[in-house]
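Sharing a chain and its predicted structure for anyone who wants a worked example. Both blocks are below, sequence first, tokens second.
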Amino acid sequence: MFALRMGSLNAAEEELRIPRRMEKIVGNKKASADSVGRVFAQIYSDSIRDMLSEINHKLKRNKALRTDWPMRFASFDGHELFSSRSRCCSKCRMRTITVKDKPVIEYYHSIVVCHLIGFGLALPLDCEPMLPGEGEVIAAKRLFKRVLENYSRFFDAVVVDNLYLEAPFINLCLSHGKDVVAVLKDERSILMQDAQGLLKLIEPVTLKEEKVTAHVWDIEGFGTLEGVMPPVRVLHSEEEERKRKRRAGKWKIETEEHNWWWATTIPKDKLSSRLLWRAGHRRWDIENDLYNDLVNNWYMDHCFKHHPTAIVNLVLTLFIAFVLMQSFYKLNMKQQMRAHFTLISIATQLLIALAVSDFVAPWLKLLPVPDT
């Protein structure tokens, strides 16, 4: 279903009902959409996580995760999957919204995802559901501990939003040998006020990359992040980005200004200002390369089955399909072929291949092959 980019279990069932097509994959006995959803609600989630871990580790062993950075980074971020005003389950989160001047209870599910950044592939490592009444950081802590068990050598530091800039999360990462890079937004924090005061005494360094020119201030030695023992480093960037936009039928170059702050436990002698600046911006990989692609092209936000276990299992299965499709497209297909096909178009080609080829899936070779 996910590899062929079908939008629902019902859409997958429709394909199953076409004679002499999916028998090559599933055999003669075809499950209904309700049966698939019921089975996914009973699967032990860690068994799917083990499959995803095996694929990611094989990519690492095959040198597909190469980088010229001295450190590897992973990002943690939350994402809301879907919401409903009528259906709910035991693990639904609740909020009150206003509809036509009346309060309405809305039920929704959210997850936290760990994702590697800085590579040619978008690699989700794992996900964790947010439970009713808890915040994103609490779920992220559970996810962090499990990710360390399966991917302890995949990353050296985590890149997160301002929400994670708190002592419990930072100390948890440091206790396991992982540094933290977090967006700094709170103007009222003592750390921000101290950093702003020192900026006037230091000359910035100018960094240029492609269409961005940045004036960067990099200061370390701050001891004003409450509850964190090691000194904290702060990097501030004032950027000018040139973008080509179409206005009134004509292309024009426009300049956008951005102002960024990051706090990190990584010292200067371990990571340069330029690489820290890059890593801070690459946090958005999880939004652009993962969430945006999976939601718009792979139907991640669709409610395939409203059951807390099934939701997690289906998201993890989607991650497996997504990683495998990317690996085939970017690591196996020739560049000349990629020039004519996009990643999402490969799903159409797979469906056509299933209809016309005579192959039989390896797991069905011991069973009677249907007449074709």
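Comments welcome. The chain has a mean pLDDT of 92.
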